[in-house]
Amino acid sequence: MTTNAIIYARISRDRSGAGLGVERQLEDCRELAKQLGWTVVAELSDNDISAYSGKRRPDYERMLTELESGQVQGVIAWHTDRLHRSPSELERYINLTEKHGVVTQTVRAGQLDLSTPSGRMVARMLGAVARQESEHKADRVQRAMHQNARAGKFLGGTVPFGWSVEDGVPVRCEPEAVEVALATRGVIAGRSLGSVVRDFKDRGIKTRNGRDWTHTTLRQVLVRPRNAGLAEWHGEIIGDSQFPALVSRDEWEAVKRILSDPARRSSQSNRAKYLLPGLALCGVCGDRMKTSSVTGRSSGLNAIYRCRSGGKGHPFRTAVHVDAAVSEVMVALLSRPDAAAALAAASAPDVDVAALQAEDQTLRARLAEAAETFADGAITGEQLSIITERIQARQRELSAVLATTRPSPAVESMLSADDIRASWEAADIETRRAVVDALAVVRIHPSTRRGGGVFDYDSIKIEPKITG
């Protein structure tokens, strides 16, 4: 009687992608089939798929379908662990082979007799051993990855946008690194993710996988700790990274804080044509103002600011007039000699900036002293590591606090301009919106004037966030 057989092969990881491991298994299985006098009706293989991972194995499923048909009497594998490393898979296989009288032969472990209780016991024991080996290997891999992550090393996979890897060491990829830095500073300055995405598309800048950028992929890139030279493991900062920083720690903290704000809406700034939608507050109810269009008697279509809540008694004011009034106040605030100091004090009134900066300088000196002490042999490398870790942890705390006292890059840029009015007028709408958000609270009240023709500037209340 002819025995129709299926050869099944599998390799968990094919680093070269050439499938050579599977081909070697198939050659050995063909030789065994010849010795047994079996007729091979199909050769099935799943390349680069782990049985332990739980991922679907297409050819393994096809083999089970063939066994269900009753047209196959034998299965040949290189070893039992090539068939299954999961107890549930094994039990399903046992039921099928027992039902249809299928014999299983392996190159390395001989016949797998699943027709007797003792044979099934052996198969289950081999499966348990294979499972334990897989779990042990997975644990070793996980521990090694954690150790490498703590050291800030590259863990493999696609090299992140902004770097390249040379001889296993991450280095800055300057064109991409510059784009990450500019996008980070742009968002801090008030640019929307959508505007950055559109800019990337217009200039043909693709992701590392060659795809177009989206809000999601851009956000994921900008909030990566490694952008600031920090190593992360499962969402926790665990030390310094071997990836060279693309932005400062302050900039990374700032952009992460902005993009993590649940009140932020990616669409809000995408359509911004005027200065205050989403920023100005209704003087009646405190809700945010939006823009709408109305048709004037003689001026055609006009943009107005309107309270989102709406209703009788809530204000609506002509947008261009409100923007002009607010712009004048912004230029005046930026022109103050003490604007930078006053803004820092307003941003964090309870923070003693001078004291924190002095402490940071002290910590830097302590790090240098510890390095010299180690060089002199007075402390061990382990002691130096402990000192360094504690000092750097405190430095990160100081950096996070000091970041809250710094003006946004948009404000800093305008404060440093020789001609503040020209700088304001040259800035794009998103930069100006960021400056307004940083410097003042704008409330729009209903007009108390009767009749039209003259704009009621008294209905616009601008509350500076800086005092003095």
Describe the structure.
This protein is 47% helix and 16% strand. It has helices spanning 20-36, 58-69, 80-83, 87-100, 117-150, 174-188, 193-202, 215-222, 249-259, 319-334, 339-347, 353-375, 381-403, 409-415, 420-426, 429-439; strands spanning 4-11, 39-47, 74-77, 103-106, 110-112, 163-166, 169-172, 230-233, 236-240, 281-282, 289-296, 300-307, 316-318, 440-444, 460-464. A 5-stranded mixed β-sheet has the order 2-1-3-4-5, sandwiched between helices. Strands 10-14-15 form a 3-stranded mixed β-sheet. A 3-stranded antiparallel β-sheet has the order 11-12-13. The chain is elongated.
Major β-sheet strand ordering? 2-1-3-4-5
Overall pLDDT level: 77
CATH fold-level label of the largest domain: Rossmann fold
Q: What count of helical segments does DSSP give?
A: 16
Assembly level: single chain
Q: Provide the β-strand percentage band.
A: 15-25%
**Which class of secondary structure composition applies to the elements?**
alpha/beta
Number of domains: 4
CATH top level of the largest domain? Alpha Beta
End-to-end C-alpha gap: 102 Å
Share of helix, binned? 40-55%
The CATH homologous superfamily of the largest domain corresponds to Resolvase, N-terminal catalytic domain
Q: Any idea what the radius of gyration is? A: 34 Å
Q: What is the overall silhouette?
A: elongated
Low-confidence stretches: 14-20, 148-152, 266-270
Largest sheet: 5 strands, mixed
